[in-house]
Design a protein that fits this description.
Blueprint (H helix, E strand, L loop, with lengths): L1 E2 L44 H19 L6 H14 L7 E3 L1 H12 L1 E4 L2 E4 L16 E6 L4 H4 L7 E5 L2 E2 L5 H8 L6 E8 L2 E8 L1 E4 L3 E6 L3 E6 L6 H14 L4 E5 L8 H11 L5 E7 L7 E4 L12 E5 L6 H11 L4 E4 L7 E8 L2 E11 L15 E2 L10 H9 L2 H8 L5 H11 L6 H15 L14 H12 L2
Parallel strand pairs: 1-4, 12-13, 13-16, 16-17, 17-20
Antiparallel strand pairs: 2-19, 3-10, 4-5, 5-6, 6-7, 6-8, 8-9, 11-12, 14-15, 14-19, 18-19
Length: 478
């Protein structure tokens, strides 16, 4: 399971957006500014941080001197760091202690055992019993071909229990660790959707998601799936676009559905491929007086013909850096957005090493080229095509379908991954009370999950209504 570190900034890059101070737990004084004393200088404003840290230091030393047992100073340090960042009441800011640092970095590489989904969970201190999303795990998006996607989990689904353990008092990191595990081991989650709960048992798999996949569909249309943004995404995208243009494509579809973000620079590199020089890509605004404000402009290194029509597919799982790219191309008139409204995460985080752990802290808002702050609002598509969704009335039948393992049983008996077999399955189970479109997608995902990753077809022009509409737009211009 990969945790949602959307719009995280790569530690390997040196960007104007990133500050990576290296602190040591051994010297508190290094974190405290020393005021200059001079009778010629007017009295300065009280440094609250210094005053508070001195008070905490005195408390720490006093407790250490009187406590009956030996104080675990490493634990105290990590708990103080965690509490400090948790007090920001920001679900995207957190501290990763040394014991979890390795797993955290493994998560950022994208290779681990899990069910394959980006997730988010507010701090337990923000629990509001009237709002389940404040204390349950929210699925931002499932990975393509992952156990989570094959089981029909959707962006916006909530998880209330993992292996029968309530997640209310868990941090986002702790919840993600429960979902992870060795491949071929089982994890049971309780899904909360539209006021109804149901259990799903999923088999963990090795999760490794490439960020760019490109191919030609429908004869002469380029189709590129962007699953995540990394520092390498721009170069990967450039290679893929060059290859497709050489093949004489008549249009290009970029699929950002369920892409929860990643490195900001990756999104800007991709946008730069399609825009002429001098176009605003994004504006970053940090804390007032922090001197972190930046406006990023395209350099004009486009390799795509100006008249090549481009469609960008989005949905509620398109977040953060995905939204930066979507806004850059939409606002500059270079792409048409088709699908549903994006997630609405318009803030940026810095990641830096602290002691032997890591801290992630929200440091800035970003604004679209037209000056919009899309945080908690999202970006509306130009052409709205609704996602295929499971209705509340269908959940009991869906739960039974999964409990009976009907998908895998059918695939065992009909091993050929054909359209005919998918339609046969949905015809047989429609009377169970589930929309046939849902059944087709579930069966298609079951077949895809059984294929080696490299053998899976790119694009589904039979059952994917949003992709079909994108092809229609490329062909007709409307």
């Amino acid at each position: 399971m990969k945790r949602n570190y959307s719009t995280r900034l790569s530690l390997s890059l040196i960007l104007l957006l990133i500050v990576i101070p290296l602190f040591s737990s051994g010297s508190l004084e290094e974190l405290i500014a020393t005021p200059t004393n001079s009778s010629l200088v007017a009295p300065k404003k009280v440094d609250t941080i210094s005053t508070d840290m001195e008070a905490l230091g005195r408390l720490y030393r006093y407790v250490d001197s009187i406590y009956i047992d030996e104080v675990d100073k490493e634990k105290v340090f990590n708990n103080l760091a965690s509490a400090l960042i948790a007090s920001l009441d920001d679900q995207y800011s957190f501290y990763v202690p040394p014991s979890e640092a390795t797993s955290y970095m493994e998560g950022n590489t994208g290779i681990y055992g899990g069910i394959g989904t980006y997730l988010n969970k507010p701090s337990p201190e923000k629990k509001d019993l009237s709002d389940p999303s404040s204390y349950m795990v929210t699925i931002i998006s499932p990975f393509p071909g992952s156990p989570a996607q094959r089981a029909g989990l959707l962006a916006g689904d909530l998880i209330s229990h993992i292996n029968a353990e309530k997640v209310d008092d868990l941090s986002s990191y702790e919840a993600s660790m429960l979902l992870r595990g060795e491949p071929n081991t089982q994890v049971t989650i309780t899904v909360f959707r539209n006021g109804t709960s149901f259990d799903l048992s999923l088999m963990r798999e090795k999760i490794s998601t490439p960020t760019v996949e490109g191919n030609v569909i429908d004869g002469d249309i380029g189709y590129i799936v962007l699953s995540e943004f990394t520092p390498q995404t721009g170069e990967q995208m450039l290679d893929s676009v060059k290859k497709l243009v050489k093949e004489g494509i008549k249009g290009l579809i970029i699929d950002e559905r369920n892409n929860s973000g990643g490195a900001v620079d990756g999104a800007m590199q991709v946008a730069n491929i399609f825009l002429p020089a001098g176009k605003t890509l994004v504006t970053i605004q940090g804390k007032k007086g922090s001197n972190r404000d930046q406006r990023y402009i395209s350099t004009g290194s486009t390799v795509v013909p100006k008249d090549l029509p481009i469609v960008l597919l989005t949905n509620g799982g398109s977040a953060s850096s995905s939204e930066i790219l979507a806004a850059a191309l939409k606002d500059n008139g270079r792409a048409t957005l088709i699908g549903t409204k994006t997630f609405g995460k318009g803030i940026v985080q810095d990641v830096f090493k602290f002691g032997e752990g890591y801290a992630q802290v929200t440091t800035a808002h970003y604004y679209t080229p037209t000056g919009e702050n899309i945080h908690k609002k999202g970006i509306e598509p130009d052409i709205k095509i609704e996602d295929i969704k499971l209705e509340e009335s269908e959940i009991p039948a869906y739960e039974k379908l999964m409990t009976d393992k009907a998908l895998s049983v059918f695939a065992d008996n009909h091993p050929e991954a054909t359209t005919e077999n998918i339609l046969l399955f949905s015809e047989q189970y429609t009377q169970e009370g589930i929309n046939r479109d849902i059944l087709n997608i579930l069966m298609r995902n079951e077949y895809l999950g059984r294929m080696p990753y490299d053998d899976r077809p790119v694009g589904d022009l039979v059952f994917d209504n949003q992709l079909k509409r994108a092809v229609e737009f490329i062909r007709t211009g409307k």
